[in-house]
Write a structure and sequence with these properties.
Layout: E1 8-14, H1 22-38, E2 43-45, H2 63-79, E3 84-93, E4 96-105, E5 108-114, H3 126-129, E6 138-141, E7 144-150, H4 159-165, E8 170-175, H5 183-198, E9 202-206, E10 208-211, E11 214-217, E12 221-223, E13 229-232, E14 239-245, E15 251-252, H6 261-279, E16 285-289, H7 293-306, E17 311-315, H8 323-336, E18 339-342, H9 346-356, H10 367-388, E19 391-394, H11 398-403, E20 416-417, H12 424-434, H13 443-447, H14 467-479, H15 484-489, H16 494-506, H17 508-511
Parallel strand pairs: 1-2, 2-3, 7-8, 8-9, 16-17, 16-19, 17-18, 19-20
Antiparallel strand pairs: 1-14, 3-4, 4-5, 6-7, 9-12, 10-11, 12-13, 14-15
Helix pairs in contact: 1-2, 6-7, 14-16
């Protein structure tokens, strides 16, 4: 096969698909293709399943979904006849279903590739829906022979090497790779393995946008044949960038540095909120402020994502609410410019007390009365949500979700859990990053001991180990799958490990009823955590 003699210009269309909006996604892809052509591109590459959005989940079990995707694919081919485009889409052939990528040119589908590796781990369920392909797919563009791969195909050996052996002179990879902390380094490492094995350059185009609990960060990149990074696209935003492939195995284009981890997580949260609210048609967001750090962070993220005019903060003080909590909340909302209201819950607490006086006669006050306060607040927030058409954003963090330090139908009441996958220690870290240039979140909120303020002088650490200890045990047990014995061997007190693991296990019924929330770690309490509620398994000690 003759070596290419001229450069190839590939447009990387890193775009934000709306899942299920087939006509809308087709129109966006066609518009991007026209822009790419006008800017001199020879070919446009789009993300994995970009025609329908990712992940379609059980839509992929519906025969009509495949028929609709096939119609839109044919319309797209007819709509952009001049420039070649590579499009990801679901494909059904003779009753078999595939995760596919097709090359469209001259008004028709020229070739189709079927994904070889079907991930069935973490948040992925592709073996539930698709059959695996086995053949390489090569396309010819301007004297270049290009191989197609899809996402997981490059995370292990096989498909990329097969394309190179068949004659590919460069590899085009369509991806829907969701974000989690430190993912970018993992991606680069596996892509370098594929380039080292194939000795050909690689262009990796990743989806961007929020889809329920997942956030896709974009961060598309290209590697030269020697494994060096020749181009990297923006993170957490759409982009249409032109990259140049040259016969010497080089790829060149926009080259952006990797942001700090705090910035990545913040932008992931912002994008997740913006797309969940926007794609689902809510008018805005409602947040219950407490004067604590979790609700403060949630409010900052919401204001950044939606604009201050679409965010409303509700402070619902009880007789146990400290004046400092009121003062700090007022300062925060003034800084952000969001609407703020105070609704005291003491009258409702009194009514509940009267209603339940006979039922509770002869018993001491306990968490029952504390939970009633949280549930009164949840009812108020949901009433405002119903009346306004804005969604309640809950404010619980991962540490609380792990050990059940939250109230069903109380602080868990709402539609979207913004910081559900952030450990408490990282909540503090992120708030300090937000304040790196000026005080946005009042310093009092960051430095004061955390408290639910449901009884006098209450502190979180009255009921829980220090968050530094709790978070480390939680991460070891639920993210790394270490046994309690192995966690104790790392130096943690056996009493703390037993306490955290027990709380984690008995709180599963709460987590199963929690709102969906943004995933930013490698394992969150969502699609990739599937433990039984009824469970008597005894851990290894």
């Amino acid at each position: 096969m003759a070596a290419p003699t001229s450069a190839l210009v590939v447009a990387v269309a890193q775009f934000n698909a709306v899942l299920g909006d087939l006509a809308g996604n087709r129109s966006r892809l066609a518009g991007l293709a026209r822009q790419a052509q006008a800017r001199g591109a020879d070919l446009m590459l789009s993300p994995e399943l970009g025609l329908c959005g990712y992940p379609p989940e059980d839509l992929l079990l519906r025969p009509d979904f495949y028929r609709a995707c096939a119609r839109e694919l044919e319309l797209l081919a007819a709509e952009v006849p001049e420039i070649g485009i590579v499009v990801g889409h679901p494909l059904e052939v003779a009753g078999q279903r595939y995760n596919a990528a097709s090359y469209l040119k001259d008004g028709r589908i020229q070739a189709s590739y079927r994904k070889h590796r079907l991930p069935n781990y973490e948040v992925f369920d592709e073996e539930r829906y698709f059959e695996a392909g086995s053949e390489p797919c090569l396309i010819e563009v301007k004297g270049w022979t290009l191989g197609l791969n899809i996402c997981a195909d490059v995370w292990e050996a096989g498909a990329a090497e097969q394309a190179a052996q068949a004659g590919a002179q460069a590899l085009l990879v369509l991806n829907a790779s969701p974000y989690h902390m430190n993912k970018e380094g993992d991606r680069l490492a596996v892509l370098r393995e594929r380039v080292a094995a194939t000795r050909i350059p690689l262009i990796y185009n990743n989806l961007v946008g929020g889809q329920d609990e997942l956030v896709f960060d974009g961060a598309s990149l290209a590697l030269c044949a020697d494994g060096s990074v020749g181009a990297s696209l923006p993170r957490f935003e759409e982009a249409l960038e032109l990259l140049q492939l040259t016969p010497d195995g080089r790829v060149s284009g926009l080259l952006l540095p990797e942001p700090a981890l705090e910035e990545q997580v913040y932008r992931a949260l912002v994008l997740g909120v913006r797309d969940y609210i926007g794609k689902n048609g809510f008018k805005g967001a409602v947040i219950g402020l407490s004067g604590g750090i979790d609700s403060a962070l949630t409010l900052v993220v919401a204001a950044e994502a939606l604009g201050a005019d679409k965010v409303r903060a509700i402070m619902m003080p009880s007789p146990y609410t400290a004046q400092m909590s009121l003062d700090d909340s007022r300062q925060l909302v003034e800084t952000l410019g969001v609407r703020y209201d105070e609704i005291a819950i003491a009258p409702a607490m009194g009514v509940y007390g009267e209603m339940l006086a006979q039922e509770f006669a002869g018993t001491a006050a306990d968490t029952t009365e504390e939970n009633l306060q949280a549930r009164i607040r949840g009812n108020i927030l949901m009433a405002i949500s119903n009346k306004s058409g804005s969604l309640v954003l809950t404010t619980g963090n991962k540490s609380e979700m792990a050990v059940g330090y939250c109230t069903l139908y109380g602080d868990m009441a709402g539609g979207f859990a913004v910081i559900k996958d952030l450990a408490k220690t990282f909540v503090y870290r992120l708030c300090r990053w937000i304040n790196r240039e000026r005080e946005i979140i009042p310093d009092n909120i960051i430095v004061r001991p955390p408290s639910a303020e449901l009884k006098p002088d209450q502190k979180d650490q009255d009921s829980l180990p220090p968050y530094e200890v709790l978070d480390a045990i939680m991460e070891a047990y639920m993210e790394q799958d270490l046994s309690p014995r192995e966690i104790v061997a790392q130096g943690y007190a056996e009493a703390d490990v037993r306490r955290v693991v027990r709380l984690l296990k008995i709180s599963e019924y709460k987590r199963r009823q929690a709102p969906v929330g943004i995933r930013v770690t490698q394992r969150g309490f969502g699609k990739d955590w599937r433990y039984p509620i009824t469970n008597r398994y005894a851990d290894e000690w």
